[in-house]
Write a structure and sequence with these properties.
mainly beta, 13 strands, about 5% helix
Length: about 140
């Protein structure tokens, strides 16, 4: 889920990580209900479909850092974190994040028809070999 209020990217599944590392010290995270602590972070690869020039294109995106937060009920992508290097374009059909050179990195669509909550329709990726183009902390993976 794309979250405009989230300070970082989070996943509840340790299996999402391609690699991860323990933090030097636990980081405090305040939620609406209580305080929890992050202890590890890592890189996550996401397979997803984008609509480019009217055609569906399979893409893989690497996101780092992503923090492990097992108490979540959904994976969260931080819009504010993305906007520290990407720009946004959106309408009722989708929200797209683009590089400075106007390359679309990802597209989020309403989670359900008519929703104002947007999700990245994708799955965790497990890649054997990749060719990639680096874009700050995000990678566009060409397969």
């Amino acid at each position: 889920m794309l979250d405009s209020g989230s300070s970082s990217h989070f996943t509840l599944h340790k299996s999402d990580f391609m690699d991860y590392e323990l933090l030097q010290s636990p980081q405090e995270v305040k939620t609406a209900a209580h305080t929890i602590y992050l202890v590890d972070k890592g890189a996550v690869f996401i397979d997803h479909i984008m609509i480019l020039k009217g055609k569906k294109v399979n893409k893989t995106l690497r996101i780092y850092p992503v923090y492990h937060l097992p108490h979540l009920t959904v994976r969260l992508l931080s819009l504010s974190t993305f906007l520290q290097g990407l720009s946004i374009y959106g309408n009722a059909l989708r929200i797209s994040l683009l590089t400075n050179s106007k390359i679309e990195v990802l597209q989020c669509v309403p989670c359900n028809p008519g929703d104002t909550i947007y999700c990245l329709k994708g799955t965790s990726a497990r890649l054997q070999s990749i060719h990639s183009v680096f874009v700050k902390d995000y990678e566009i993976i060409h397969r």
